[in-house]
Each structure stands twice: as structure tokens, then as C-alpha cells.
Amino acid sequence: MSELIFKEPDEPNPAQDLQSKDKIKVIIADDEEEVHVVTKYVLRDFEYKGRKLEFLSAYSGDETKQLLREHPDASLILLDIVMERDDSGLNVAEFIREGLRNNLIRIILRTGQPGLAPEEEIIVKYDINDYKEKTELTSRKFKTAMTMALRAYADIITIDSFRAILEQEVRVRTAELEEKNRELERLNRELERHATTDALTGTYNRMKFNTLLETEIKRSRRYKRPMSIAMLDIDFFKNINDNFGHAAGDCALREFVEIVSHSIRECDVLARWGGEEFVILFPETTLEETLQVSEKLRQRIETTCFERIGNMTCSFGVTQFSIEDEMETLNKRVDEALYEAKRNGRNTIACK
User: Does the structure show a pLDDT above 60 at 284?
Assistant: First the structure.
């Protein structure tokens, strides 16, 4: 933030207060004396940018409001949600933001009732900085929350005081920001590709396939159109890795994918299901048509001499979508068909 600030030498620096030797005012609002004592003890050596804390104690909602009136320069309030009334803490938060129009002080809500968290709309409406259970008082997370809250306070002070200069700086950096946004979009696309693609073979991964399958199921059901899937498993692939090494096995998987990709239509979807198992989605395709394509694939794979391992074979399970199918039932049925093909001696096709 400091890099964005430019001022004349004789101008007052609004961030100077936070860098001075004066103590930072922290209000503890809680109806339990023990909480005040323990909080002060835990934070007795706490410093932010070389400044220690000055604690102001309030034991009720009304006392808290009076302290806030008397100390508008308080940086932080540790606010118990429940004091003399269940809604006392939130009532104080409302008083801070709407009654006093104080948008600077940071609010950390606290509760002695684990699991009792404020609604998200409350967090947003009253600009709550953090929420902690009282049992977290001695944890590192609590001190981290304090540091983050005080940092936020310092930033807000700086931004509020130099708004005009910051706006000018923003205009100067608009072109740079737009370029960064374009780069971010590119990176997001790259992340999407990594999240949906199998790194070894370049095909879709299982998660992406299921997403596309779910969409195709809805389309086929709505328009009463045929759709089939085939599951492929390279036979005895473990022996390939054991005999030729994993590098040769990886090379064979990539060759296998290239063969399959060039043997199916552009609208068909090939994905790696896991290990040496692959799956193909055939939109607008009947079971008979899928069996024909699968048989051609089986023969082509069987007769191909792979670069580093020679010949290998593949088993196929095939099934067609029916109107009552969901993604789980369809995947389960094609998996059962594949295992039937394996039981039948492999290098064959089974359908269900």
C-alpha cells in the first residue's frame, strides 16, 4: 500500500499514528471478568509495528457504546456476541456501523458457545473482521486474527486519507491491470485444462467425462435420442510395465489413445477412467453401432505393433442408455460388461 502513496513533505501522514509510540486502543466487550483478565494476559506482550496495546474494558452493551463514543480512535473491538442479552453483541455492531457511522474500527466477534456462528449476511452488513470462539484465545490463530485486523485498520486509514491520489494511480495503472486480467484469464483457462485433462495421455479425465456424460444423459432423455458408452481395458497391462518398464508402458498408453482418437468421431468423447482403463461416450449411437465401432477398434489394437512393447490386446464393455438410467447406473452397467469380457478370456467385447 505504501508504494501507492505520494505526498508533499509538509503534508501530515495519516498512517503516522500507527507508526508512533502511542498505544493501540483495543476495546474488550464481555460480561465475564475472567475473559478480560485472560485476554489482557495473553496479549500483554503483543505488538503491532512496535506499538503495544491499551485495553479498554466494557461489561455490557451500553458500557461498550459509551466507550466507543469516548474513544472514536479505537482500532479494534473484541466483541462478545452474548452479553446481558443474546443480541447485545450484534446490537453493538449495528451501533458502530450505522449509529456512529464508524467504518474504521475492526470488529472481532467472540462467543463462548462453540458452533454458534453469525449469519453470513450479518458478517457482510456490519463488516465483521473475524469470528472466534473464546476457546481460541490462547491459540496462534487468535493472534494472527489480531494482526490481520490491525493491518486492515491501518490500510483503511491510509486508503481513506489518500483516496484521490489512489484513484489517480488506478487510472495510470488501468492498462497494466487490463493486461494482468487478460493474463489471469489465460491462467484460468490453463488451470481448467489441467483440472479436466489427464496429464499423461492428454484425454479428458474421469471427472470431466462424468460431467459431459451427465449433460448427454439429460439431452438423450429429453429428446429420446440413443446414446451408448464403451469401457476399454488393456489386457495384462501390469505385465507390460513389469517386462518393459513404466516408461514403455506410458508410451504404449499414449499410442493407444492416438489410435482410439483417430478411430472415433469428433463428437465422441474419450477419457481415461483410471490406470489402463478408458471410456468412450458415443452420442446419437445405438448399441449395435457401438458394437461395430468397438469391434473395429479391438481388431486395430490387436494388429498394431506398438513402438516399444510389440503387440497388446484390449477388452471392451458396451452398454446403451435407457430412459430410466442415471449416470451411476450407466457407469455401473458398462463396468460390469467390461468385467464380463475379461471373464470371457479378454480381447473380446461384452454388452449389457
Answer: yes
Task: Report pLDDT digits (tens) over 19-47.
Answer: 445 899 999 999 999 999 999 988 988 99
Q: Is 174 exposed, middle or buried (0-12, 13-18, 19+ CB in 10 A)?
A: exposed
* 173-213: pLDDT as tens digits: 787 777 888 888 888 888 877 888 998 999 999 999 999 99
9 in the same domain as 142: yes
Q: Are 317 and 337 in contact (CB under 8 A)?
A: yes
User: What CA–CA distance (Å, rounded) separates 12 from 21?
Assistant: 17
pTM over 0.70: no
Count of positions (residues) in the chain: 352
CATH of the domain at 50: 3.40.50.2300
Question: What is the CB neighbour count within 10 angstroms for residue 344?
Answer: 12
User: What DSSP letter does each residue of 31-73 carry, written as one string?
Assistant: S-HHHHHHHHHHTTT--BTTB-EEEEEE-SHHHHHHHHHH-TT
229 and 347 inside one domain: yes
Identify whether 185 is part of a domain: no
Q: What is the pLDDT of residues 149-175, one digit of tens each?
A: 899 888 888 777 777 676 777 777 787
Domain span at residue 137? 2-169
264: left (phi over 0), alpha (psi -120 to 50) or beta: beta
**Catalytic residue numbers?**
276
Domain containing 320 — which CATH number? 3.30.70.270
Select from 317, 312, 152 the least CA-distant residue to 240.
Answer: 312
In a domain, 184, yes or no: no
Q: How many domains does the chain have?
A: 2
- The HSE-up count of residue 337 (CA atoms within 13 Å, CB side) is 24
115-124, 208-217, 257-266, 311-320: segment of lowest average pLDDT:
115-124
Instruction: Return the C-alpha cell found at 205.
Output: 479425465
